[in-house]
């Protein structure tokens, strides 16, 4: 158990920080008894659930995976080169804060262009010192772009515009150091969610947080990777939870949008996950592209085990 309570160092679409308290009722009871030795996340994102559980339980093994190369690379740098990362972030932060809004915007687009150039030439399978600068740019852009989004176009380029923020903490030194401690013994993987299949056994708990199925056409946001996550992907994921995770005797908890927020007759997930437990939790989300529809809505939790505290 870590004495440092690390928090997500990146903002990610659909982040789970606001739901952590509600989630505590829905974890498998064997987690509380120390019988679960391995924790796995196939869709890492901001990592709110990982950071919370890592601070509460002594897992013998942790595997974190995501298809977004820049995301996993940034975690790798926080894990292995946090001192050098902090140094570069402090330089970017000071440069940004010293300028007026025109200068801030100029710096943002300069860093975004460099980031996209680096994306085309970096080797993600072989560590290079260039990773540190790229990770620093990733965090800088995440903190200074519009609404803290990460979005890619079809070419795989980061294309979120400038956020016009006067004051921003680019370098949260204490949290990065805490995150470094939390990540010490973690195995990081880049790839599709099925990438973690070989690590799953009966002593594993998986938290699965895929790109959500859009509630409406205008709320669609599944392009944090250049590979879309559509209904066919949702069906493939459901089949994998049944034929791999459940078949191996592992425990899983999966989050997704609740279609019944907009259509009471939409049974998409009830049909996909028939036979598993399905419950609803409250979340504050934006339900359209402009963010003006932000409010409390239901989200689904789907799991294959008995829980302790209901």
Automatic annotation (TrEMBL):
The keyword Lyase does not apply. Keywords: Methyltransferase, S-adenosyl-L-methionine, Transferase. One of its GO terms (molecular function) is site-specific DNA-methyltransferase (adenine-specific) activity. The keyword S-adenosyl-L-methionine applies. SUPFAM superfamilies: S-adenosyl-L-methionine-dependent methyltransferases. InterPro entries: Ade_MeTrfase_dom_2, DNA_methylase_N6_adenine_CS, M_m6A_EcoRV, MeTrfase_D12, SAM-dependent_MTases_sf. It catalyses: a 2'-deoxyadenosine in DNA + S-adenosyl-L-methionine = an N(6)-methyl-2'-deoxyadenosine in DNA + S-adenosyl-L-homocysteine + H(+). Its EC number is 2.1.1.72. S-adenosyl-L-methionine binds at residues 12, 16, 66, 209. GO terms for biological process: DNA restriction-modification system; methylation; mismatch repair. Pfam families: MethyltransfD12. Belongs to the N(4)/N(6)-methyltransferase family. This is Site-specific DNA-methyltransferase (adenine-specific). It comes from Caloramator proteoclasticus DSM 10124.
